[in-house]
């Protein structure tokens, strides 16, 4: 298992720094999982800045199961917020400029959760890629 833990700036740069950190943690992985992980992490970091309070912390766990493939867990925590987590993400109205973050996370992640509270918020997700079977031609 490889783990990266880093503080994120509490500000508009949180998403950018989070994307860069995920790229470092997942160096050498397939582009599809890297792109999905970067997008999810960007959304989670943006939500933490927009709805939470400092400190913001990113944790990326990269595991290669014994059966092969790759499992990535991404967690973003913040200092908390005063409103409860939604039971499921709601798509924003057609003209809305924001509000799609959790909808994107739900669409891309194999599993995810959001726990909010006044003393801390935790957004977590898992991306899994199974080992590809190689077919050698004779």
Biggest sheet, spatial arrangement of strands? 1-2-3-5-4
Proportion in β-strands: 25-35%
The best one-word shape is globular
What's the average pLDDT?
A: 85
Quick one: how many beta strands?
Answer: 5
Give the SSE string.
Answer: EHHEEHEE
User: Nearest-angstrom radius of gyration?
Assistant: 16 Å
pLDDT < 50 runs, ≥5 residues: 134-138
For this structure, the quaternary state is: single chain
Number of DSSP helices?
A: 3
What structural class is derived from the secondary structure elements? alpha+beta
Give a quick account of the main beta sheet: strands, pairing sense, barrel closure.
5 strands, antiparallel
- First-last Cα distance: 36 Å
Kindly state the percentage of residues in helix: 25-40%
Topology (SSEs and partners):
Blueprint: E1 2-8, H1 14-25, H2 31-51, E2 56-63, E3 70-78, H3 101-108, E4 111-115, E5 121-129
Antiparallel strand pairs: 1-2, 2-3, 3-5, 4-5
Helix pairs in contact: 1-2, 2-3
Describe the model.
The structure is a single chain. The longest helix has 21 residues. This protein is α+β, with helices and mostly antiparallel strands. The protein has a 5-stranded antiparallel beta sheet, covered by helices on one side. It contains 3 helices and 5 strands, in the order βααββαββ. The chain is 30% helix and 28% strand. α2 packs antiparallel against α3.
How is this structure best summarized?
The protein has 138 residues and is an alpha+beta fold. The protein is 30% helix and 28% strand. It contains three helices and five strands.
């Amino acid at each position: 298992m490889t783990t990266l833990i880093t503080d994120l700036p509490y500000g508009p740069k949180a998403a950018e720094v989070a994307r860069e950190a995920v790229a470092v943690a997942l160096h050498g992985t397939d582009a599809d999982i890297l792109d999905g992980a970067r997008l999810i992490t960007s959304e989670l970091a943006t939500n933490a800045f927009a709805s939470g309070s400092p400190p913001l912390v990113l944790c990326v766990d990269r595991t290669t199961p014994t059966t092969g493939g790759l499992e990535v867990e991404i967690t973003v925590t913040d200092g908390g917020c005063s409103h409860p987590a939604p039971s499921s993400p709601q798509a924003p109205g057609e003209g809305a400029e924001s509000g799609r973050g959790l909808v994107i996370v739900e669409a891309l992640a194999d599993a995810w959760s959001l726990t909010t509270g006044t003393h801390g918020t935790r957004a977590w997700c898992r991306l899994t890629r199974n080992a590809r079977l190689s077919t050698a031609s004779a």
